Amino acid sequence: MTERCERKTLTMGNIAVAEGAVQAGCRAYFGYPITPQNEIPEYLSARLPEVGGIFLQAESELASINMVLGAASTGTRVMTSSSGPGISLMQEGISFLAGSQLPAVIVNIMRCGPGLGGIKPTQADYFQATRGGGHGDYRTLVFAPGNVQEMFDFTVCAFELADKYRNPVMILADAILGQMREPATLVPEHPPVEYDKSGWILNGAHGRPSRNIRSMYLEGDGQEELNYVLQQKYEQMEEEEPRHEERWTEDADRLVIAFGTSARIASTSIREAREEGIRAGLFRPITLYPYPKKALRALTKHIKKILVVEMNCGQMLEDVLAIVPQGVKVAFHGRPGGGVPTHTDILEKLKEL
């Protein structure tokens, strides 16, 4: 930990993601430019060759995700990145990755929409990320960083969990986090965890049994059986991987729930509220899937007033409403289409609770 503190450098969020991928052992990147995430491929175009990796700017997002699938099948740690419209084009390939049980990391630095939208910050891709996004019964584990250091740390962790579960993992961040600069330590807290892939990778090894990595099973009940295998995996994720942060919750009588940049802004509002005698606390989900349901329910034993803050029209709000018990008052404050909540607006909403 001392080494990490001593080696802080002023780093852009997108660069932290890219270097986190390299430090995690990513050796292949396939992607297509789209703002506000272009610093990721730009950085990796120079950085990956330095470590013997492969960088390729594909002709489209469709091509990118299918190249990711091919590289993943060889056991290579591989990543792509894009923004909302590009992630939409990748959805079939992400579903194929999940159905084929192949690990990969997908980064979405969100831009406002719907449609082509613009480069202003938003959190409107929550539904897309947490519900799988594509066709079929599948899920992707989703990290929501809250600062530049977490952009690095969670990317390293994403590669480890992708291998652990043989499943796509997504980093979901808004444009503010992608573009902002903060001091960060670009050294992992521990050596990247490696998992045995010898039982499934396609590496051309002589003498091993033939293998067929696929997501389509036409024989008997094979497709149904695959879905049960996937659901068992997601149940394990929901038991072992939920992560969150709590601040000022010990004596709180009202709670703000927010992620990413919204949580940073809400922290200022809560400090100001406490200066005025309002006992507010913060609950920040770090994994959006699996959502930290048990931790949130535990807080509602003594907190009966909740304010959900998002840069959208109320997407995480639906999950919160499904989790908290009856008798808990839930209010919402959101700004869509590139609007950013202000700390004064959040403070006023807290007072209204």
Can you put this structure into words, describing what you see?
The chain has helices at residues 2-6, 13-23, 39-50, 61-72, 84-89, 91-100, 126-130, 148-165, 175-179, 222-240, 260-275, 293-299, 316-323, 343-352; strands at residues 8-12, 28-31, 54-57, 78-82, 104-110, 141-143, 168-174, 181-185, 244-247, 254-257, 280-285, 287-289, 305-310, 329-334. The chain has 353 residues and is α/β, with parallel strands linked by helices. The chain folds into 2 domains: 2-203 and 214-240, Rossmann fold (3-Layer(aba) Sandwich); 245-352, Rossmann fold (3-Layer(aba) Sandwich), CATH 3.40.50. The model has no long low-confidence stretch (mean pLDDT 96).
Summarize the structure.
The protein is of the alpha/beta class and 353 residues long. Helices cover 41% and strands 20% of the residues. A seven-stranded mixed sheet has the order 3-2-4-5-7-6-12, with helices on both faces.
Report strand order across the widest sheet. 3-2-4-5-7-6-12
The percent of residues in helical segments reads: 40-55%
CATH topology of the largest domain: Rossmann fold
**Largest sheet data:** 7 strands, mixed
Uncertain regions: pLDDT < 50 for 5+ in a row? none
User: SSE string, helix = H, strand = E?
Assistant: HEHEHEHEHHEHEHEHEHEEHEEHEHEH
Q: How many DSSP-defined strands? A: 14
User: What percent strand?
Assistant: 15-25%
Our Rg estimate from Cα atoms comes to 20 Å
CATH homologous superfamily placement of the largest domain:
Thiamin diphosphate (ThDP)-binding fold, Pyr/PP domains
Distance separating the two termini = 40 Å
Count of separate structural domains: 2
- Alpha-beta content class: alpha/beta
Mean pLDDT figure: 96
Number of helices: 14
